[in-house]
Amino acid sequence: MGRGLWQTAPEPFDLVNLKTVLSKWQLALSEDGWNSLFWGNHDLPRAVSRYGNVSGYHVESAKMLATVLHLLKGTPFVYQGEEIGMTNVPFTSIEQYRDIETINMHRLHVEAGLSPEEFIRGANENGRDNARTPMQWSAAPYGGFSTGAPWIEVNPNYPKVNAEAAIKDEKSIWNHYRKLIALPTLPLSMGSTGPGSTNTPMSSCIPARSTGAGSLSSPISRRAKLR
Q1: What is the 3-state secondary structure (H, E, C) of 131-198?
Q2: Which helix (DSSP H) or strand (DSSP E) does residue 59 occupy?
Q3: Helix (H) or strand (E) segment spanning residue 12
Q4: pLDDT tens-digit profile of 143-157?
Q5: Which helix (H) or strand (E) holds 101?
Q6: The whole model's pTM is what?
Q7: 75 bridge partner residues
């Protein structure tokens, strides 16, 4: 039985190959088309955990990924929590997971005599539930997401990684996203799709939310000035 997605580090990260893929799409759509730019979604592990070093360079890794995305030609999409550096979740038991595919594959792996501990390690790196834990709004219980236990556990790093703390820190990942988005929209030099073509971000997946410290709105402008 192949382990595929559920093994730890299924493929070593290849920076040169990643750059090749990004360049391919940029050039392929340079004259005819427009890129949708994203690192993650509800089916992928957290980008900063997949491509960065969260144990030693968490903030630096998240800022690097944000910079790469926003300086490419296309429309950047920011998945919920990405702008505050939310990471993969360190679950220790299959009972903590909610993704039906993960649960079913765990059962098949155990029936095949494979290590359940190794499966959990692989799921923690590559499973879909990494991107489905509640948004970490504050250091309050359940990350400020709700007053009762949510359907899936909050990542235990929420006391440190949360929106309220990020807003107060001028050097935070969130404020780095704001600076990137505030950059002047300039015509692209590589493969313009027409006069005045620009790289402009659209709406984030996060809705505006009011907090005790003031109003917390999505870091992505609600206005898409596509020309």
Answers
A1: HCCCCCCCCCHHHHCCCCCCCCCCCCCCCCCCHHHHHHCCCCHHHHHHHHHCCCCCCCCCCCCCCCCC
A2: helix 58-70
A3: none
A4: 999 999 999 999 999
A5: helix 100-111
A6: 0.78
A7: 36
